[in-house]
Structure formats: C-alpha cells, structure tokens
C-alpha cells in the first residue's frame, strides 16, 4: 500500500497497544469503504450459536468476507466498532480474543458499545468497520 495507516499510542493516553488496538489511526486521503454491522448470520441460513465466543467468530468471518469483497485486508481497517449486548467485564474478556484475531495483529482504532439489543433477539454482538482501501 502506497499510503500505510499510521497507528499511534501517545504516552499521554492509556497504552491501547498492550490491549491490541490503537488510540489513533492516521490515513492519507483515498478511497474508503464503510462496512455495515456484521452479525452471526450465515449465508447458508444456519442458526445463530448461543455462545458469545462462537458468535464473535462468525462476526469476524463475515467481516473478513466483506473485506475480501472490497479488495482489502485486516491491515486496512481504520476503525472497528463493536456493539455488545449486556456489556460486562466478563463478556468483554470473552469477546476480545476472537475480536482481535479478526485483524491479524493490525491494531485499528476500536470502540466498544454496550447495547440493550441488536436486530434479532438471538444476536449478542455486531461489528462495523471503516476501511481505507488499498491503492
């Protein structure tokens, strides 16, 4: 990529890099993709699993499929927003490993948002992405 995303974690802010994300992402102007919230629905219609971890793995798989569709990779993600039903420290701890695995070590900016409900009663987690497309 001619214009890489620069990730910053200034010493004046908490060290997000230790937690797997960045406080700031700096990008050059370019083509952007905004990927709608991905949930644990599957194209083959298989039912949503009950496990939060299994749902996050499917959300990650769907997000990766969306990245593939626009010719991008995890390293091109600028911002990831995660919506979690009943956000608690324990549920967040369950969510983070499969969430971070989505990005293959890239550390996009991350916002976690606790919500009361998502689009269907069986959904527990949703992730949307902002992506700077490669040149």
From TrEMBL:
Q: Which GO terms describe its cellular component?
A: cytosol
Give the matching InterPro entries: RutC-like_sf (IPR035959), YjgF/YER057c/UK114 (IPR006175)
> Gene3D superfamilies this protein is in?
RutC-like
Name of a matching Pfam family: Ribonuc_L-PSP
Highest taxon of source = Bacteria
GO MF term set? deaminase activity
Instruction: Write out the similarity annotation.
Output: Belongs to the RutC family.
Q: What is this protein called?
A: RidA family protein
